[in-house]
Amino acid sequence: MQAKKKQGLFSGFLNNGNAYPVLTAVAAGLYPLLFYYTNNYKMINSWGHLGYFVSVFLLFPIAVFFLAHKISGVNLFKKFQPFVLPFLNFFFFFSYLNIALYAGFSWLRTLIIFGVAVLLAFLLRKFFKKIIGFQLILAVIGIFTLVPVVIKQLNYSKEWMAQPDAIEEAVFKKKPNIYFIQPDGYANFSELKKGFYNIPNNEFEYYLKENNFKNYPGFRSNYAATLPTNSAVFMMKHHYYNNGSDFTETIDARNVIVSDNSVLRILKNNGYRTFFLTEQPYFLTNKPKLGYDFCNFSTEEIDFVTTGIGEPKDVIKPFDNYLETYADGPNFFFIEIFNPGHITNTIEDSKGVEGERQHYMESLAEANKKLTQLTKSILEKDPKALIVIMADHGGFVGMTNTGESYTKNTNPDFVNSIFSTILSIHWPNGEAPEFDKELKTSVNLFRILTAYLSEENSYLENLQENGSYIIINSGAPQGVYEYLDDAGSVIFKKLS
Description:
The protein is of the alpha/beta class. It has helices at 2-15, 21-40, 47-72, 81-102, 107-123, 128-154, 189-192, 202-210, 226-235, 240-244, 253-258, 262-269, 316-325, 352-381, 412-419, 445-454, and strands at 178-183, 214-215, 273-278, 294-295, 331-337, 386-390, 423-426, 468-472, 479-484, 490-494. Strand 9 (479-484) and strand 10 (490-494) form a beta hairpin. The radius of gyration is 27 Å and the shape is elongated.
């Protein structure tokens, strides 16, 4: 009986002459909204984003559709009324899907969508209510897809962040200005000379040695992407990709990196002024609360719809200004530059193995230029500075695209292309601590620096193991695997 009643309601909806402008508007925006949230939740998980997307994807079309329907009822436009809502529905639906897929606006794509919407409005007007029904069914499917993503976020455990000792209460005996410079994807000098890279880089390596930087051959990251690496670096703890929840968008990583973490707490407890300078707002896409005192981006200038990657913003000029303005210290600078970066993410955009390698070489030269400018500015004004140049991961050179890294491959050159990272440190007065031999992977960097600055070697008792980890999607059962062991040897061990 109930089934017949529901069938009757649906049949009545299809066959009556009512236009339903509000329902038509909701059908146009709801599925694209859910689709965008499902695929980008960790980049937009704020109340501000929710308000924005509900307004743009639902409230705005409701207002437009309602007004357009009313206006088209006027005698002057009456003949167009049957086509108005179908056109608007198709135009908004595909425009929103375009935004959801590309995280941006394109006049060319919008013009094409406009033409398609006009054509569909004429061809499919008689089937329009069935199309609305189909869009609403898609929205129901979208809800079932989004719910597990939200539940995973809500059930996210922060237990991995707990420190095994009282390191957050460390008291520094020496307080040099600290400059942590992170060139994205910069492989270690030792790896650049061999393997898939085989790239000459002697001039910059020599420049650093001439300026009393100590290079650390064989140094590597623990993770294969920027967010998982940095969340581990600033918490000085392993998270193991949240047990395989995601490869690139580790849960809550942006908040960990720029809002609150063990390193920032230690620095603030020791009276440090903190600065975050970045060429791209990649860490700021979800508009997190900033735990740094200063940043060269304000949350207001970051779009709600963005990948966080676009035209790079200069960091050198604002950095020089900060050096002049806050010369007294103690200061901590986290400076992120996006050269050399890594090879392309997708096979569609790939220039091939050699083409991607050549592009990496060009970007490496740009990275060297920026790093030289930054370090020269620091050393001129602050010769006793503690300067750390450390990348987030390798450049993936030797592959056609980074997607290949998801497939099992135990070739040492392949694995080291992912994890090999530069580490070069200018120790104050050229005096490196004897325990700097423990600097093997990025997760232990700040625990070792804290031991050095506090002159408290007991913090070294809780160093994390130096394994390097990746998520594998093909060539082996899906999951998190240890790819390099504590000694840096290639293994392939699935984590339980």
